[in-house]
Specification:
The complex is a heterodimer of chains A (266) and B (602). Chain A is mostly helical and 266 residues long. In chain A, 34% of the residues lie in helices and 2% in strands. Chain B is built from 14 helices and 25 strands. Mean pLDDT of chain B is 96; it is low at 1-5. Chain B: GO terms for molecular function: gluconate 2-dehydrogenase (acceptor) activity.
């Protein structure tokens, strides 16, 4: 045995001291999200022997990072305009609570598609790709990003051919609802894409953005949480567990606090 | 084995021999390591995933992140690293589970013990002698012909001290229902006799959970608080480790506890174990094979690969296989230890009697002007339950099925992505959807796994190796063949209807029942209680392990975990998994170390 840092006993063999002294640039979260990639590219974050005391490395578990405000990262300008219009149909604005567009739901979907989710990172994507039964789950070779791209392109063409060259975002409210109801029922078909599946996914992703922490781009200023009465990222209700049928009085907090506390909080 | 591509090509580097090598460092690995180091043995535990703990991985500043931990599965194994193939029927082509659905395998130190709900259920005495019990009560013709349930080879009374030990390790909060044979008011009157009360009183119950208890009592049932590993008060366990009271934050399942309030290997064992000089662990190290000598009857150690692709051999005198249930079975198949099960000839043992759980739920929508449940106030194992319809607690004769489960308002919180439900008939989007979400969030009862039914074994439900799909080492993926049989579908319909009656009696305006129906769907989450495939029993031709969890063919290999369950009961499995680990550890300490060899004659 040899003495390691902080009195840790590092045993002979594959202990490789550097492992627990990982530079914060190679963070656990990236490692977890891309295990396979990192397996093929030697990384300083690897196996370590743990003995004597519990290991602790600052930020080893990787704190979350807030999305960057600014231009679309995945969508083209036209795609983004369409998605914002869809978001406002799925979650229409009302006098008390903003709609999906103002709440940032399209921004949420954009950042998700630009990130690991869009590319199926971490999922099993080895061939062969065979269509199975519904109970066997999706067997798609391409990820959500490519599916959105194809469906949005086809959706744009379908709208323009139906409404004399008008894009979805330029239609009247009644026309937009009619198109989306058509997608939902299967009456409006998309060329080269499954319109019904696309709209179901879009509803799910837009609503997810509405209810996720504002740090991901949607639910701006916690509008959705305020609407439903969810207090957010709190962790202690000991004083409230026995107070039955009383409304919890405090407004929500997000992981980055509250909008009025920080200039950039969303 | 083709390890090209990800593993460096030279022969494994051989490490100095240990007394014991433990494969998988979750609950059972940690329990066994602590027990065997107490015997003075030199023990190493190997864990595929990373080290994890509250201060770095789930601190209170950002642990309440539903998107990251629940939706994107932050703390779970990536299917990319290892997954399974799945089909309903033997004549179908199995296809890979490309993203998790019906269950979500753990990864990392602490295993599923990090992100579980901490429900602390004991199985019923009759569950351990199930085949004998049901045959005696209903006759052998009552059971479906292809049902392959078995007795465990162990009794409740034998396991009781080990249940007790784990309950006290964890500080479990609950109300005793049967204290040394005496039925206690307020507890579960159907539970087996326990030798002492729970170490801490039951958790406080939020409004809707209390209402469920009241409605159930008025209907003539005997409701009781769910036994919980989220503690009602501060507790110091027998190893001297301290836990704080649960704060009811509502982030247990899928999440790590930042408050040191939920029982996990990290809060109840590891800080004690790690100080022992005869113990060490390695993270990010995946065991790819259990090695045996030429006779095939003696394990010599394991081969593992670390995340840099380096391959190592760890020799040891005793091998403890304590990974997640499915990975135990997979490693036995890849190591060619034990005869693989063949459903056609009904021979072989590895892969036999695979089971899951039969889960359904009923959501209740209440008048928001009269009811405010503050549903975000909860814990993972909170709830009021009844056990009248579990196991064989009721006469199955008139109903034409066997098995059952507890039902209860066990809502674990109201994270808003998953908990913004609307009454039946509401559009899925638009203004009507939005106002329904606004009006219902605080006044909806969403019990999640409210109907927690058993899953019994069948000849055509099993695990094997897939002929087509490979993992990143080039090894075949394990193949799951699983469907719901009529017995479980009938059981679920019966229980779900009974459950809905209670939700209705709570005062719900609308009740939405969600039955579990065939075919078994790999995309629909039920629980991560997948069991069997390397089961314990009394006959080496139908079980992989003897009653001490010792492998019949390789006596210096013990296999812990729910893979040993001959079939699954209507309860969460962890307490039984942990009790069996203590039971096996006692057999090793008291018997095996004195005379290494088969503890039972075949």
């Amino acid at each position: 045995m040899i003495a390691g840092p902080h009195g840790t006993e590092l045993q002979e063999g594959p202990s490789m001291v550097e492992n627990k002294v990982t530079p914060t640039s190679v963070r656990r979260r990236e490692f977890l999200a891309g295990t396979a990639m990192l397996l093929f590219n030697a990384t300083p974050l690897g196996a370590a022997t743990i003995s004597g005391q519990l290991p602790w490395t600052p930020n080893a578990g990787s704190p979350p990072s807030r999305i960057k405000l600014g231009p679309w990262e995945f969508f083209t300008g036209e795609e983004g305009r369409t998605m914002e219009a869809i978001a406002d149909c799925v979650i229409p604005p009302d006098p008390e609570t903003p709609g999906g567009k103002e709440a940032g739901c399209a921004v949420f979907v954009d950042r998700q598609l630009a990130g690991p989710y869009g590319q199926q990172d971490g999922l099993y994507i080895r061939p062969p790709f065979v269509k199975g039964t519904k109970s066997q789950g999706s067997q798609s070779e391409v990820g959500p990003a490519q599916k959105y791209r194809e469906a949005l392109g086809s959706f744009d063409r379908a709208c323009k051919s139906r409404y004399s060259g008008k894009a979805f975002a330029d239609l009247s409210a009644a026309e937009r609802d009619a198109v989306l109801k058509g997608l939902e029922s299967g009456d409006v078909k998309l060329d080269g894409a499954d319109g019904k599946a696309f709209f179901e996914q879009a509803i799910k992703d837009i609503q997810m953005g509405f209810f996720a922490d504002p740090l991901y781009g949607g639910n701006r200023d916690m509008v959705a949480w305020k609407m439903i009465g969810y207090p957010g990222a709190r962790y202690n209700y000991l004083d409230w567990v026995n107070r039955h049928n009383e409304r919890f009085p405090l407004p929500p907090v997000g992981m980055t606090g509250r909008a009025e506390w920080t200039s950039q909080a969303r | 084995m083709d390890l090209s591509g990800s593993v460096k090509s030279h022969m494994p580097r051989k490490l100095p021999k240990k007394d014991v090598v433990i494969i998988g460092f979750g609950w059972t690995g940690a329990i066994m390591a602590n027990e065997l180091t107490d015997e003075g043995l030199d023990v190493i535990a190997l864990e595929r995933g990373p080290w994890r703990d509250a201060p770095t991985d789930f601190p209170p500043g950002y642990m309440q992140d539903e998107l990251r931990y629940r939706v994107r599965h932050e703390l779970f194994l990536r299917p990319d690293q290892l997954t399974f193939t799945f089909r309903n029927k033997i004549d179908q082509t199995a296809l890979p589970i490309r993203s998790w659905g019906a269950f979500m395998p753990p990864n990392g130190v602490g295993g599923g013990g990090v992100h579980w709900n901490a429900e602390m259920w004991r199985f019923l005495p009759s569950d351990f002698v199930l085949k004998t019990h049901l045959t005696e009560r209903y006759g052998k013709d009552f059971l479906p012909e292809d049902m392959t349930i078995q007795d465990w080879g162990i009794t409740y009374d034998e396991l009781e001290p080990h249940y007790d030990r784990f309950e006290y390790l964890c500080g479990t909060s609950g109300t005793a229902g049967n204290l040394n044979g005496k039925i206690m008011e307020g507890g579960n009157p159907f539970e087996g006799p326990r030798s002492r009360p729970y170490p801490t009183p039951a958790q406080a119950q939020p409004f809707s959970h209390t209402l469920f208890g009241k409605a159930a009592r008025e209907l003539g049932y005997k409701p009781f608080p769910q036994p919980s590993g989220n503690l009602s008060q501060a507790y110091t366990n027998p190893l001297g480790l301290q836990m704080g009271p649960c704060t009811y934050c509502g982030f247990c399942e899928w999440f790590g506890c930042s408050n040191y309030s939920k029982a996990s290997p990290q809060t109840t064992i590891l800080p004690y174990l790690i100080r022992k000089p005869n113990f060490s662990a390695r993270d990010n190290s995946e065991v790819v094979k259990i090695n045996v000598d030429r006779s095939g009857k003696h394990a010599t150690g394991v081969t593992f690969v670390d995340t840099s692709g380096e391959k190592w051999e760890q020799p040891a005198d005793l091998v403890i296989l304590s990974a997640f249930s499915l990975f135990n079975v997979q490693l036995l198949l890849h190591s060619k230890i034990g005869m693989p099960y063949d459903p056609a000839s009904n021979t072989g043992v590895i892969g036999r009697n695979y089971t899951h759980q039969t889960i359904s739920t009923v959501n209740g929508f209440f008048d928001h002007k009269k009811f405010n449940f503050n549903p975000f106030i909860a814990s993972g194992a909170i709830g009021m339950c009844i056990d009248e319809f579990n196991g064989d607690n009721f006469d199955h004769g008139p109903h034409g099925f066997v098995g059952g489960g507890y039902v209860g308002q066990v809502q674990t919180g109201a994270r808003p992505i998953e908990s913004t439900l609307t009454p039946p008939g509401t559009p899925k989007w638009g203004a009507a959807w939005k106002s329904a979400v606004r009006d219902n969030y605080l006044s909806t009862v969403k019990p999640g796994t409210g109907v927690h039914g058993s899953s019994y074994a069948y000849r055509d439900v099993y695990l094997g190796l897939d002929p087509t799909y490979k993992d990143r080492f080039g090894r075949p993926l394990m193949q799951i063949t699983m469907d719901l049989h009529d017995n479980e579908v009938k059981q679920n319909r019966f229980l779900t209807d009974k459950f809905a009656e209670i939700i209705k009696a709570m005062g719900a305006d609308h009740v939405a029942k969600h039955y579990r129906t065939a075919p078994y769907d790999i995309t629909q989450y039920q629980t991560t209680h997948v069991n069997g495939g390397a089961i314990m029993g009394t006959d080496p031709s139908t079980s992989a392990l003897n009653r001490y969890l010792q492998h019949w063919d390789v006596p210096n290999l013990f296999v812990l975990g729910a893979s040993a369950f001959p079939q699954n009961a209507g309860y969460n499995p962890t307490l039984t998994v942990a009790a069996l680990a203590y039971w096996a550890a006692a057999a090793i300490r008291d018997k095996y170390l004195k005379n290494s060899g088969r503890l039972i004659d075949a």
